[in-house]
């Protein structure tokens, strides 16, 4: 398994992103046919299978795991000033609450499994908005760190410590 890549992006374009925690990319980290069992084993639920919306959106009340299980796509995470990622089966994104994401382009058959930590299984979906930081910032910052990483099962508190060591991308 490749090392986990941490992606920090400052608030931009009506997407608040997370004030402390980066998005995580686990590249080629799991067998697609075992993705649902992996999520369940690590305590993540509310599992669904679909694609990713083609507009910037975020969840102010939930952290989200997106595991690519079929096809491929180019996603943008972090808002308009964010980063474009090409995802293939076996790739997983773990997005902290508030972190923007959208699908820029997908190839035939693209599908992800989405999942959430316990108690966050029915998140709201918010589109980019100029006042998003003001409206949702406190809720995003107050959401607790999940107990376990959805991919590795390790403690998320080690992956998402409470302090930010490196500044977000602008």
TrEMBL record:
Top-rank taxon, per record: Bacteria
Residue ranges of every copy of the Cupin type-1 domain listed in the record: 57-114
SUPFAM superfamilies per UniProt: RmlC-like cupins
Stretch list, region Disordered: 145-170
Name assigned to this protein: Uncharacterized protein YjlB
Organism this protein belongs to: Limimaricola soesokkakensis
């Amino acid at each position: 398994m490749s090392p986990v890549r941490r992606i920090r992006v400052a608030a931009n374009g009506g997407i608040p992103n997370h004030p402390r925690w980066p998005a995580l990319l686990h590249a080629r980290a799991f067998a697609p046919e075992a993705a649902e069992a992996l999520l369940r084993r690590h305590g993540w639920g509310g599992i669904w299978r679909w694609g990713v919306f083609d507009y910037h959106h975020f969840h102010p009340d939930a952290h989200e795991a997106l595991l690519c299980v079929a096809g491929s796509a180019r996603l943008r995470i972090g808002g308009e000033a964010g980063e474009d990622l090409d995802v293939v089966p076996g790739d997983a994104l773990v997005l902290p609450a508030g972190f923007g994401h959208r699908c820029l382009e997908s190839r035939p058959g693209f599908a992800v499994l989405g999942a959430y930590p316990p108690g966050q299984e029915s998140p709201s979906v918010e589109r980019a908005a100029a006042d998003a930081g003001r409206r949702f910032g406190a809720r995003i910052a107050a959401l607790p760190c999940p107990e376990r990483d959805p991919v590795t099962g390790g403690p998320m508190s080690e992956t998402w410590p409470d302090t930010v060591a490196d500044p977000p991308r602008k």
